[in-house]
Each structure stands twice: as C-alpha cells, then as structure tokens.
Write a structure and sequence with these properties.
Blueprint (H helix, E strand, L loop, with lengths): L6 H14 L5 E12 L9 E17 L4 E6 L4 E6 L10 H15 L7 E7 L9 H16 L8 H16 L6 H8 L4 E6 L5 E5 L5 E6 L7 H19 L14 H6 L6 H25 L3 H17 L6 H11 L4 E7 L6 E6 L4 H16 L4 E5 L6 E4 L4
Parallel strand pairs: 3-5
Antiparallel strand pairs: 1-2, 1-12, 2-5, 2-6, 3-4, 6-7, 8-10, 8-11, 9-10
Helix pairs in contact: 2-3, 2-4, 3-4, 3-5, 4-5, 6-8, 8-9, 10-11
C-alpha cells in the first residue's frame, strides 16, 4: 500500500506549520491516472482500462470549528479561501473552483461539512492528459470527509460520481467518469476495467514487473476541445444511421466489427472511420484484459500499438508530436507497445516496457523526440499504484 508518510507529505506539513501555526491532523491523497487502452470509448458507453499513477495531489489539513476554508497551494504559490455557505466560481483561481465544487457536491449529497485549514500540493503534471483535475477533486473529497468525521459514509464509486458532478456542474467541464473512478478505486499492480454504461468495474491484475513509461510531449493541445466535440457528434451520427439496420443499438458500444462492416454503405466515410475506431477499440480493451490475465505482455503491447494506429488513422486525434513520441519509444529495445493516451493532439503517450528497460526507453525519448519536434519532453516512470487514501498524522 502507498504510504503517505514520506518527504512530500513532510514538506506540506512544514508549510502548514508556518502558515497556520500548528500541526495538521490528516493527509489525503488523490492520484493521477494514465489510460492503458480504451480511448474515446467512454462517451460511447464503452470500456476503458486505466491505472492510477504514483503521482498524486495531497492535502494536509486541520478541521475548523466554523464553515471557513483556508487553503494554500504549494503548486501555484498562492492562497485561497471560501465560505462553505457562500460558494462562488472564482475566474482567476481555477484550482480553487475544483475544491469548491467538491464541497458543494458533498453537501448536495446531504453531508454537512466543516471548515478546514489546508496546504495542498501535487506532482501530477497539469494539462498533460494525466488527470490532475480528478486527482485534486478526489484528494479534496477525502480531506473534507475526514475533517467532518464522515470517512465511511460514501462508497468509492459514489465519491467518484460526486467528483464528476463537481467538475461538470461547478467547474463547467463536461468530463466522463473514468478519471475520478480510477483516482478513487485504483489498486497497486492492477488496472481497472470500467464499463462506462453500467459503471461496473473489475480490478485486473497486472504482472508486478510490468512497467509503464509516460512521455509528455509538452506540445499544445489547442485543437483538442473542438475536435472532441466533432468526434462525439460523428459517433452519434453513426449510431443514428446504423439504427434502422441494427434497431437494438443505443451506442457504438452495442455494435460489433462484423455488424459495422456489413453496414458500411450506410455511413459517410469519415463517420465510418470514427465508428471503426470506437468499435475496434472496445474489442481491444477486452482482449487486453484477457492478455493481462494470461500474463501475455507481448500481446498487450501489440494491442496498444494497434490502438495508436486506429487513433491516428481512423479517429484522427494524434499529432506530429504524439507520433514522434511513440516512434521514439519504439526505438528502444524493451518497448512492448506504445500509444497516445488521453484525448489526443498533445499531452502524453504511454509505453509498456519490459522490466529493467525503463531507462532505455527514457533515453530513447530524450535522444529522438527533440530531434523530431524541437521540444524537450518530460518522462515519468511508474507502475500501477493505489487509489485515494486518507491517514491521520498524529503530529504534535
């Protein structure tokens, strides 16, 4: 189990003592995530297979006797405050809105919160597709619940749903459920298969020596928002055009590759290609689960490669930078497979790596990626980590 009593927590504790003149009572954690496979399937009622990262957002906190929340963000180097009885969106402190939204969502669930003093900090890279926002929401949820003495009143899936509601309704970002689910429910050396229609989930063991190398392209994701909406519309159009021939379908989740090919003539070419990615990606997710359960990492890598090709050629959400990152990863002996992860157009790619070859893959990224893009990347090595946690600190 991931321990929260380490140097990072100690740095937050020291900052808390300086700012609030006493020791914090609790530390909470919400990890970031990387999606192993299953991209753009979530809004098509499909399957995803993320893992939680060892990188996380943490709060050290002390309950207050009133309804005031006083915060200091180490990451942003600024203070923020709000009243639990007067929540309002703050345009110039976006990080604060995720925390306010989480407080609102918990109170809408009937949980009476108390104020807190807290220092927070994280090492999940922002705007990189590793879900720093969900990590912040989940860490905040456990901070508020611990302070209110309500740690055990909500199930893990419900906490994830409330965090999604906070982001959708208070922050105004129309995210799916995957990021919050894996941040809350991840487990060390496991991936999490999530059915985005039913919200049923299954922990899928990963071999303990299976390592992941994440390459951050540090490239602009300026096209991601408009393209996301366009792709979503094309998928909905595909379902509408297929329904006369396949009257039982509600989403692309319900369509098999054989059915799609048999009815290809019903679809414009661009819509067919978007549907082909989603339908085949759902099938790849389930085959990846089978391969992991069989300990066949070579097959997992092959499926990750196929996913990237599909995202690049059929869904058209890759980019020069992402393709260069995946190519650089493959130049190292020991890279079993690599693909873009997240919405695309920038952000990160993830590689599945043979044990002991993580540094070789990182070296290949640093050697080849800058030559192709003139951008210096960031590289993170990780294994599947535990999800959210909260611990008492027992400090004097």
């Amino acid at each position: 189990m991931t321990t929260l009593h380490d140097d990072r927590t100690e740095a937050l504790v020291q900052e808390f003592r300086q700012r609030f003149g006493a020791a914090p009572h609790y530390v909470s954690r919400g990890p970031g995530r990387v999606n192993l496979i299953g991209e753009h399937t979530d809004y098509n009622d499909g399957f995803v297979l993320p893992v939680a990262l060892k990188r996380d957002v943490r709060f050290v906190l002390r309950p207050r006797a009133d309804r005031q929340v006083r915060l200091y963000s180490m990451e942003f180097g600024e203070s923020g405050a709000f009243d639990l009885d007067a929540l309002r969106f703050v345009p110039d402190q976006l990080w604060l809105n995720y925390i306010q939204g989480m407080a609102q969502s918990l109170e809408q669930e009937g949980i009476r919160l108390t104020g807190i003093d807290a220092v927070l900090g994280g090492n999940v890279p922002r705007a990189s597709g590793l879900s720093s926002s969900a990590a912040l929401e989940i860490a905040a949820a456990h901070a508020f619940l611990a302070a209110a003495g309500q740690n055990d009143v909500l199930s893990g899936p419900r906490i994830a749903q409330l965090a999604q509601r906070a982001e959708n309704h208070f922050v105004g970002v129309n995210c799916g459920i995957m990021d919050q689910f894996i941040s809350q429910l991840g487990r060390e050396n496991h991936a999490l298969l999530i059915d985005c229609r039913s919200l049923e989930y299954t922990l899928v063991p990963m071999p303990e020596d299976a390592a992941l190398v994440i390459g951050n392209t540090r490239a602009s994701r300026s096209l991601a928002s408009s393209a996301y909406n366009e792709r979503r519309s094309e998928c909905e159009q595909g379902v509408a055009l297929l329904q006369p021939a396949l009257p039982g379908i509600r989403a692309l989740r319900d369509v098999t590759s054989a059915q799609l090919e048999a009815n290809r003539a019903l679809l414009p070419d661009n819509v067919y290609r978007r549907c082909r990615h989603v339908v085949s990606e759902n099938e790849r997710v389930l085959r990846t689960v089978d391969a992991l359960q069989a300990g066949n990492l070579a097959e997992v890598g092959r499926l990750m490669d196929a996913s990237h090709v599909s995202l690049r050629d059929d869904y058209l959400v890759s980019s020069t930078a992402l393709d260069a990152m995946v190519d650089a990863m493959h130049r190292a002996d020991g890279c079993l497979g690599a693909r873009l992860t997240g919405a695309g157009f920038g952000g990160c790619a993830v590689a599945l790596v043979k044990p002991g070859r993580e540094q070789a893959v990182a070296d290949a990224i640093f050697e080849h990626y800058p030559k192709a893009t003139s951008i210096w990347p960031e590289v993170y090595m990780t294994k599947a980590a535990d999800g959210a946690a909260v611990e008492a600190l027992h400090l004097v």
